[in-house]
């Protein structure tokens, strides 16, 4: 990880869960991290915690709604100076909900990737790394109607990451692209997914020893620490007790 000290990283969804854990881990490793979310209060608190812990890196909170392309572009302009998933059944889901999930899980990811690559090229960075937090839902479809559209967006992330890898090779860069695909992680996700049934959401996390956000952060640092000639395409990880 020594070669990443002082480098700039963008972490989306950095206010809670996996995003917050990844941001903290990278700051601890000495990186300058731009952490974005629609609500930056928690990122500001995390930044203060990192500073109090005397981590060698810096966390820069940035307010950004990833469903708004103009805000994404503004964020990347600022960088130069410095997973959502509610139940949406296929046969009865609302178009607005599908559109929002596509906007955040697919389009926002694609826009962020495009702008990150542009930013690297402008700064003559040829050994950067694009890491997409995907899901095991991008590799299998479970028999649960309210996850099927979500799975479709995560399959898109799997395809997009491989497509990015191929385009980076065609561009003769040494920039790498990787998916991290976790199973059940104990975050706020289940409570958003089952927002009308908090008891059902809590039961998801009580049924097994789930992954923690810190486990995903460790996977990110593992991928970053791989030798520059090693391309890790996808890290699939799940709790030992998880069946699917």
Structure description:
InterPro entries: NAD(P)-bd_dom_sf (IPR036291), Sc_DH/Rdtase_CS (IPR020904), SDR_fam (IPR002347). Keywords: Oxidoreductase. One of its GO terms (molecular function) is 3-beta-hydroxysteroid 3-dehydrogenase (NADP+) activity. Pfam families: adh_short. With 244 residues, this protein is of the alpha/beta class. Helix content is 47%, strand content 14%. Helix 1 (17-28) links the parallel strand 1 and strand 2 (32-37). Helix 3 (69-81) packs parallel to helix 4. The chain is globular, with a radius of gyration of 18 Å.
For this entry, give a set of tags.
244 residues, alpha/beta, three-stranded parallel sheet, 47% helix
Topology as a string of helices (H) and strands (E): EHEHEHHEHEHHHE
Order of adjacent strands in the largest pleated sheet: 1-2-3
Binned, the helix content reads 40-55%
Shape descriptor reads globular
**Total count of strands:** 6
What's the total helix number? 8
Question: Uncertain regions: pLDDT < 50 for 5+ in a row?
Answer: none
- Main structural class: alpha/beta
Beta-strand share of residues? 5-15%
Largest sheet: number of strands, sense, barrel closure: 3 strands, parallel
End-to-end separation = 33 Å
Mean pLDDT: 87
Q: Whole-number radius of gyration?
A: 18 Å
